[in-house]
Amino acid sequence: MGTTSFKAFCVEFYAAHVGKTGPEVYAAFEKSGLLKELDRDYEDLHGLGMEALMQLFDQWLGKGAAQ
């Protein structure tokens, strides 16, 4: 999976996690700098499990900033 696919995967799964649309979550990821972080740390992050990723995104976004 490349970085673009990984970012799309993260956005869509996080959207389901917080009950928001993909575009709403994408905007929150972009505004917070999380999209750039997903590019920078792709090698480390793409191997994490779904639960760990959701926790990371919750923390990054301030536990519900996308909510």
Please characterize this protein's 3D structure:
Helices cover 73% and strands 0% of the residues. The chain is mainly α and 67 residues long. It has one domain. The longest helix has 16 residues. The model has no long low-confidence stretch (mean pLDDT 90).
Entry summary:
With 67 residues, the chain is mostly helical.
Cα end-to-end separation: 27 Å
- Give the rounded overall mean pLDDT: 90
Number of strands: 0
Helix content: over 70%
From the alpha carbons, calculate the radius of gyration and give it in angstroms. Answer: 11 Å
Number of helices: 5
Question: What's the number of domains?
Answer: 1
- Main structural class: mainly alpha
What percent strand?
Answer: under 5%
Q: Looking at the structure, what is the overall shape? A: globular
Largest sheet: none
Low-confidence stretches: none
SSE topology:
Elements (H helix, E strand, L loop, with lengths): L2 H16 L3 H11 L1 H7 L1 H4 L4 H11 L7
Helix pairs in contact: 1-2, 1-5
